[in-house]
């Protein structure tokens, strides 16, 4: 019984230590260059504005001219933009040359691999290899390419790589390339973290739950769902049944519609990863990730399958 108060004191001390460690912020943020991909909208756009306000030197990579122009209107003259398509190696290497010129001897303090897509998503059998490829090409190979090309500049600054994975990189909640790509980002980040440790480069993973950045895509997803369904052979459609299709597509829509709209929960994690003296290896953002999806990953497979089964429609025939 004597041990209990002692244990409580130790826990409190540990929490205070963690809190103190977490709150140590780097000096001279205004000297640091950070490249963020996918700044046209969503997390990337918000993070660019947030870090710009903190006085960092933000290099915003946008897919479109329009996205870049809009961002410039809302930010200081410190912020610079570059057009980048992460699926195009030529585009990535041009951006790397531009970044090298801008940062000079300082090197690049941070790269935030944020650009990503979530569509096409559907049950695996409704998809083609091309559908998988599309998502993997942006979300996984894009992250790998940008990271590899920026790494010499990051090593020079003994900086940070911040990769946006997802809670879907810890728990597979649906078919298609999305979860696969996020598992890939987790794996890439894990090996890179170990390899970069001796160079003083830190690799951080951000794992958001469901956020409304996906919602701008609701209509495209709905259209895709219909397209994937109608192109299926008659026999396949009969096996799944109309009700499966209706439920699957409307559940997806509802999940996206209900998702968290407070994007700063995610961008605050990214900001901590870039500005803290001691960044965490993993950040989970959003209550759904913390209290539902991440705990699911610790259950035995049979239980996880059963619970996820609740969210998945049943086919009309199982022959
Ligand atoms: C911060 O910047 C100042 C002036 O540029 C420099 O003298 C100082 O060494 C820097 N501190 C760190 C920790 O880099
Ligand atoms: C969003 O999250 C941030 C960070 O936790 C919090 O400070 C802010 O109040 C939240 N905003 C809304 C509208 O809930």
Automatic annotation (TrEMBL):
Keyword Transmembrane helix carried by entry? no
Entry keyword set: Oxidoreductase, Signal
Keyword set includes Transmembrane helix: no
* Gene3D superfamilies xref list: NAD(P)-binding Rossmann-like Domain
Q: Give the source's domain of life in one word.
A: Eukaryota
Q: Name one GO biological process term.
A: steroid metabolic process
Q: Which Pfam families match?
A: adh_short
- Signal sequence region: 1-21
Q: Tell me which InterPro entries the record gives.
A: NAD(P)-bd_dom_sf, Sc_DH/Rdtase_CS, SDR_fam
Gene Ontology MF terms in the entry? oxidoreductase activity
Question: Which family does the record assign?
Answer: Belongs to the short-chain dehydrogenases/reductases (SDR) family.
PANTHER family hit by this protein: RETINOL DEHYDROGENASE 7, SHORT-CHAIN DEHYDROGENASE/REDUCTASE FAMILY 9C
Q: What is this protein called?
A: Retinol dehydrogenase 7
Instruction: Report the source organism.
Output: Leptobrachium leishanense (Leishan spiny toad)
List the taxonomic lineage: Eukaryota, Metazoa, Chordata, Craniata, Vertebrata
């Amino acid at each position: 019984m004597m041990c209990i108060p002692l244990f409580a004191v130790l826990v409190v001390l540990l929490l205070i230590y963690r809190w103190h460690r977490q709150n140590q912020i780097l000096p001279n943020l205004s000297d640091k260059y950070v490249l963020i991909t996918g700044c046209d909208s969503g997390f990337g756009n918000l993070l660019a504005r947030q870090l710009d306000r903190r006085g960092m030197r933000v290099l915003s990579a946008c897919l479109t001219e329009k996205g870049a122009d809009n961002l410039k209107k809302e930010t200081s003259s410190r912020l610079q933009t570059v057009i980048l398509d992460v699926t195009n190696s030529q585009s990535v290497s041009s951006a790397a040359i531009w970044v090298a010129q801008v940062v000079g001897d300082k090197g690049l303090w941070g790269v935030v691999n944020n650009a990503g897509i979530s569509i096409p998503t559907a049950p695996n059998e409704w998809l083609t290899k091309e559908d998988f490829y599309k998502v993997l090409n942006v979300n996984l190979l894009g992250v790998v390419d940008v990271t590899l090309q920026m790494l010499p500049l990051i090593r020079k600054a003994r900086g940070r790589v911040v990769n946006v994975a997802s809670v879907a990189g810890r728990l597979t909640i649906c078919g298609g390339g999305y979860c696969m790509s996020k598992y890939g980002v987790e794996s890439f980040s894990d090996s890179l973290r170990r390899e970069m440790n001796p160079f003083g480069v830190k690799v951080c993973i951000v794992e958001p739950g469901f956020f409304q950045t996906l919602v701008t895509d609701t209509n495209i997803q709905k259209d895709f769902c219909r397209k994937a369904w109608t192109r299926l052979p008659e026999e396949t459609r009969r096996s799944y049944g109309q009700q499966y299709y209706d439920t699957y597509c409307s559940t997806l829509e509802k999940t996206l519609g209900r998702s968290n709209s407070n994007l700063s929960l995610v961008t605050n994690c990214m900001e901590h990863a870039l500005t803290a003296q001691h960044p965490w290896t993993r950040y989970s953002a959003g209550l759904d990730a913390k209290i539902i999806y991440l705990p699911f990953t610790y259950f035995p497979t049979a239980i996880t399958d059963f619970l996820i089964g609740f969210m998945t429609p049943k086919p009309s025939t199982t022959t």
